[in-house]
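Shipment paperwork, digital attachment
Item: protein structure file
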Amino acid sequence: MRRTRQLLFQTETLKLELLNTPINQLDLKIEGTIFAQAIPLVKEELRRAGIRRLEPIFYISTGYGCIAGQPIISLGFYDFHPLLKELNEEFRGWRYSDADIIDLLRHECGHAFCYSYKLYRRKDFRELFDVHGHFFHTYPEDDRYTYNPWSRSYVNPNGDYYAQKHPDEDFAETFTVWLTPRSNWRRTYKHYPRALQKLRYTERIVKELGPCPPLVEADESWKIEPYEEVKITVAQFMKAKPSHYYKKATGYVDPSLKEMFRAQPKRLNRRELFGRFMRAETFLKAHKQQLISRVAHWVGVDSTVVYDLMDKLITRAKALNLWLEKAQAEKKLVELTTFVAARCTDYKNTGCYLRPPV
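Attachment content:
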């Protein structure tokens, strides 16, 4: 990679950009991630196990979970990009492997099966999984829970005793162990009579209900925090203070772009919006070739020096969803030209686009 692109797209810069990007502007997709393989894999495991009518809905959110009472499963946005995974580990202290994610999907599908067939209303389920009172209203409000590390009444595939948190998690963990290929659960839990009873119950109830249509029809309006609606930045979500990245980032142009352009105007219909305003990305693309040739000539640098800077500006203007008023286009072109020429002059004189902080 040529030096100009290394400066503008180095890892520290990309991490800083991600941290300061609102979650709803991350442009995340399942395609091209571990989920593109994991979701079909787990769905196939469900079908092979005899669960043929359940079709869980998956969506990207602020964490993993299954909407209470619905076969709708949320996926943590922080696992949809390698750098987001690194940032999550740095600031939140943990990182899921691909195998962990597959297990998480199995676990959430256990919830989806329970909710779709309303197992929590069955007498045999409530007795075996020790359900008292309202199944959902008794769920702990936080992640703290007490457990007995010597209990033989629960499965414990991850060593965290999570099945002891609540009957809802007890079934989901049991379902995960039962569904996982080659888990050898009969042998693993042969000395855990209550846990083995729950595993056998899971096998029996799946055989009974798996071919039947679910009792609950998914209602996507129940989705909680789809990432497209979460306006806080990644840094705010992760409670991150990325000061050290500011010192290392050599291609961080977001503050300059935000000063030059503006956020998307609100309270305008589509006709009014595009009648008076235009996307900064579109504006930058329209003047890209002209600026490359002229600035390269005026400053005396190779055209790739200007090309790569323009590429960075366009990329970030799109990510930040920046706009400008059409009536100010000429003024903004002067500002843009001055900025690009100044940055390319810095590169010519110092080998860097941006002066390091004092």
